[in-house]
Amino acid sequence: MLKTSALTVAINVRLINHTIVIGTLSVLTGCQTLSSPPAKTPANTVATNPLTARMPAIDRQGYIAYVEEQGVGSAKISTLYRIRPDGSDRQLIDQLNGYIYAPAWSADGQLLAYSKQAPREHPNIYIYDWSNHTRNLVVNADGSNLSASFSPDGQKLLYSSTVGGNADIYEMRLSDGETRQLTTLPSTEVQPSYAADGKSFVYTSDKVRAGRPRIYRYSFATTNAVPVSTGGYAASPQLSLDGQRLAYLNGRKAAVMTLATGQVNNLAETGLDEPARLSPSGQYAVYPTRHSNLDGQVNGQNGGGLIIHSLSGNASYTISRKDGGVVRSPAWSR
């Protein structure tokens, strides 16, 4: 196992149209079992939402995990939820005084990896198991441990860590904790995300110019990485399951690129510098926003939430936040 430093990542990954508003492992370094399953909130009445009604079952039957933040500084409270794409069945997964980062689902939707950072501590990676409602600490290296991504078979975990001094990407075998370092450059390599075939992953690096991140694709067969042609500031990549699309942060905009043509669909400047994330079918994207409408105006305490956007048209709708906080980091499961 890595000997687990504190870090400041060199790059600052800065972190509609028709709108319908919907209210409302085997290796463990620590294990916490919940006394009971997460409480459910009543389902919302969203049967009239035409966008949800025509979603493929693989999207409609999945969950979106996301983080809601309240307060600032030492008073920061972060809550991790999951919710159906129609806005129903919101469930609390975790909460702490501090930060929760970058939830990521396993391919079967049963495991959720994310980072937690309590005050005066470095971020560590946990996995929540829905089958038995346990929360397991899997990476507690002495550094910032972030951006977990499950391999397609659920046997391995990619993540970034500063255990070696600067941020690099590591791969852990979950059965026994065996870990190998995949990148060794003096630059910053972060935000890895597996391709669905497990043969490669995409990630963010500023190796060409410090503070100007680009997206690269690493091949396990060759151990080489090649840039993805996005142009300008690009970060936080995620490939669709069919490998045809790339969701990412394009400058300050949540965006989706069609890889075969290079065509970029800039969905919105969200006010949060958050990327888009794709649904399992790849036909929809979700991203958080501070704004409650499409002209960028914030509607007081009712502003902000999760935007779900159809990539085959201009239809979008909003799932409103629960506690009036800042919504971040959605991830969509099967």
TrEMBL record:
This is Xaa-Pro aminopeptidase. It comes from the Bacteria. Belongs to the TolB family. InterPro entries: 6-blade_b-propeller_TolB-like, WD40. The keyword Lyase does not apply. The keyword Hydrolase applies. Coiled coil: none annotated. Keywords: Aminopeptidase, Hydrolase, Protease. GO terms for molecular function: aminopeptidase activity.
